């Protein structure tokens, strides 16, 4: 039986290689593609090659390749990792045949694409996954345009480089102009097996955190703040079972950060002619890493977010959450090289590339910033007023472990900013799942209906760039900047609100929604077909979470009124409360999850059923 | 402080709009109209001007009819590259003051007189505005541009070739 399977596998592998070559797909054939042959052509934008057309074949393998000059075992797609650029056209019918040459099931999810549930590619939801040796054919109409990406939705395969960019060319003119384009796919590679990374996280939270405070830090802080204050701050963090330097779970201690598959030393280079307007399509295809991106010497004008056009915003830097995409326009005027610098949010490393008029040039690498410290500002941002929580029973707050917080003196929490909490409206919280949170008193409760569509929730921080960024230093993109050109088609006010808490226990590496991991819940989240819904996300944890909904757009209520932007992935900062409007027009079952790979795997995942 | 700056700029703009926006300072509109050599129609849409380039002879008086067929307000400003850049920098600074606090972050900010004598007009979505302008002697290359933050960078600029 086992022997037979192996024979079948090798047969299909040979067949695929033959078929792939004949059709002009696969790594070997790529040099023949005209666009690829031109070193200045748009497809040269991405070194892993490109596939396009009405019938695209993709072969998934595990093979030995060099990554940054060192032997690695990534999952490849048509022979490269990350995979080829898939170029589609708005209005076409796409056919993508995915052949699994692994010895385990796989899948491809087309991240951000609006399509039928059976071809969304999340196994176990509306699709069975692709068994070893099997070819699955995805067919769907392409109904949008912009910058997206694809990745495995099976287990931890995404960490092995099972991902790649998607560009969908627009049917009509886009609201900006450019002369040349380049794809910038950011990923985090580890030579460790993803399963072992996950085990390490489970057994020792902070395993990859080499930036824990040292005795030297402690003494420095004592000099600055005095012993008592320092000791009290430390003790509080310890009681909350968190380290104030936990910016990221998995860090540069194991990760090599890549641009289009190339390590910083390899210096992937994108070419331009001085004076040209370049469109850079940034995709964060990382498993776990947020990046802060800048190109010293160049203003970047953000023209699209998550594939959707936005009113242009000139910035010096932007933070890109895992799974987000941003399109920016830059116009390098000088005949010189520029460094594209993508620093990991926790400052444990960076990805780097170069924009240059000729190959072989490079510019300086910016000085790295200090490690950010969550400190008290994270506590202050926590959208709950602890001072007024008398009578609230915290012992049942599933997910957050406050059991050791007895004796915390909130009155002395210097630096906590509660000023934004006035007017928190809890009046609409009936029928919400509080997961056992006992609200003895509800501070700030008031009468009144739902907020108007597009209004920002109290407790949102859309005008803040986030931890470790100094907004005074340079102009940083914030969610508040994102505005659509025109209102999206459905302008109904929300009929209903649903509030979901992002929860976790860092020490046990349990991540969940409303305190329950995916394995603990008993059914899907229900959306009524065609309802207009407000989804409120409340982050009860001390980490950022990029929340992704499959199948439907989330219109981010960032205060832009009817010009609110729509996104497929929304970053929720620690303690933040954000909301999105959803038109539940996509019948079927869809995945809804945190896009930090190990958080999703740990249980921060739900199924949304639209019926 | 910011509010009053904003008010001052609006006032400036109103005054400017009432006066002729012509480049030779105080020439009156009818006088300019009388000697228009050519009417040029310009389409302003996100984030492009059509046509994308123009050739105009020095001394020629042109009446621009600029139609905004997009969803956002745009400006049509004529000046050399450096003046456009300076104007853009000012617009950006004004915008960044209001950053994150409402909708007046530069987008409602109509053209003021800063940047010297740059002929300028702001066009609301769906509207058509006109601007009469005589091409100067002694310049070879000018730009027509929209300097609302981000618009120029995203593509709203065209070249005026003055060498014929």
From TrEMBL, chain A:
Keywords, alphabetical: Copper, Metal-binding, Oxidoreductase
Lineage: superkingdom: Bacteria
Domain Plastocyanin-like intervals: 62-171, 242-344, 493-610
SUPFAM superfamilies tied to this protein: Cupredoxins (SSF49503)
Extent of the signal sequence: none
Record carries keyword Thylakoid: no
InterPro entries according to UniProt: Cu-oxidase-like_N (IPR011707), Cu-oxidase_2nd (IPR001117), Cu-oxidase_C (IPR011706), Cu-oxidase_fam (IPR045087), Cu-R_CopA (IPR006376), Cu_oxidase_Cu_BS (IPR002355), Cupredoxin (IPR008972), CuRO_1_CopA (IPR034284)
NCBIfam families, A to Z: copper_res_A
Protein name: Copper resistance system multicopper oxidase
Lineage, highest ranks first: Bacteria, Pseudomonadati, Pseudomonadota, Gammaproteobacteria, Oceanospirillales
From TrEMBL, chain B:
Keywords, in A-Z order: Copper, Metal-binding, Signal
InterPro entries assigned: BlueCu_1, Cu-binding_ET, Cupredoxin
Protein name: Cupredoxin domain-containing protein
Organism: Billgrantia antri
Ranges of biased composition (kind: Basic and acidic residues): 100-113
Keyword Lipid metabolism applies: no
Blue (type 1) copper domain mapped to chain residues: 40-162
Signal peptide per UniProt: 1-19
Gene3D superfamilies named among the record's database cross-references: Cupredoxins - blue copper proteins (2.60.40.420)
The organism's place on the tree of life at top rank: Bacteria
Residue numbers spanned by region Disordered: 94-113
